[in-house]
Write a structure and sequence with these properties.
Shape: globular
Structural class: alpha/beta
Helix content: 25-40%
Largest sheet: 6 strands, mixed
Radius of gyration: 18 Å
Distance between the termini: 20 Å
Length: 245
């Protein structure tokens, strides 16, 4: 039986999660994981030693060395070869903060699908990266069983994918959403359905019933390439807690 890997703790999600060369919109994309970003932030920005970084992330110094070395290679690859950079995914755990209402995180059952919708005055907010709050719905057996408002508390667009992952969200229904945000959601294994308009409650009910109308005319990240049409819901088991995979 193999040795269980320790979780890598990060203190916050990056405020920006996508960067790229201005000269090319079709550049190849490289991914920097959230824990790799954390080593860059702690060592290069806060000027910590690798040992101090390891203590902050609750891992061995040799683990930090490996993560940091790969992070530097990814950054160099983007700079030298003109690649887009997306910060998302990885195997980490966020150090909890007041941004995450524990009651919401703990109530999700094993057979519940959690859906988040950027919300403004009860309507689907059309700018995913600028939303100030999500309305979060729990769906079970084809019906909405609960809902709550979850404020982003000023989280930047780059942090929203991790913010939603921390809230155990499985699906995002939204209006407009950029390529970087699409890639970040995909890296966190969160499905997304863009081009949704109207009432948040109506959209959640339609998703639960399998009749949601959405449009994917904007460029896709390639992870979930849905054509405009209907979504048929198949609610299953979704693991909670622990490291993000």
């Amino acid at each position: 039986m193999g040795r269980m890997k320790r979780c890598r703790f990060v203190e916050s999600y990056p405020q920006w999660n996508s960067f790229g060369p201005e000269e090319s919109s079709q550049a190849e994309t490289a991914v920097l994981t959230v824990e790799e970003f954390e080593t860059i932030r702690l060592i290069d920005w806060e000027h910590l030693t690798q040992q101090e970084c390891a203590e902050r992330m609750h891992v061995a110094r040799t683990t930090v060395t490996d993560i940091y070395d790969h992070a530097r290679f990814v950054l160099a690859d983007c700079l030298v070869n003109g690649k887009n950079l997306v910060v998302a995914g990885g195997r980490y755990e966020l150090k909890r903060s007041p941004l995450y209402p524990e009651a919401l995180l703990l109530k999700k059952g094993s057979d519940v699908m959690r859906v988040a919708i950027p919300c403004e005055e009860g309507e689907v907010f059309q700018h995913f990266g600028k939303t100030e709050q999500f309305k979060v719905y729990d769906i079970e057996n084809g019906a909405v069983v609960s809902s709550t408002l979850l404020p982003t508390n000023g989280q930047g667009h780059g942090a929203l994918s991790g913010f939603l992952k921390g809230a155990n969200v499985d699906v995002v229904l939204c209006g407009g959403i950029g390529g970087g945000a699409r890639q970040a959601l995909a890296a966190e294994n969160i499905q997304f359905f863009p081009g949704v308009t109207g009432s948040c409650d109506d959209a959640a009910a339609a998703y639960a019933a399998g009749t949601l109308e959405y449009s994917n005319e904007a460029p896709s990240c390639g992870h979930h390439d849905h054509a405009c049409g209907h979504h048929h819901n198949g609610c299953g088991h979704h693991e909670q807690g622990g490291c993000h995979a």
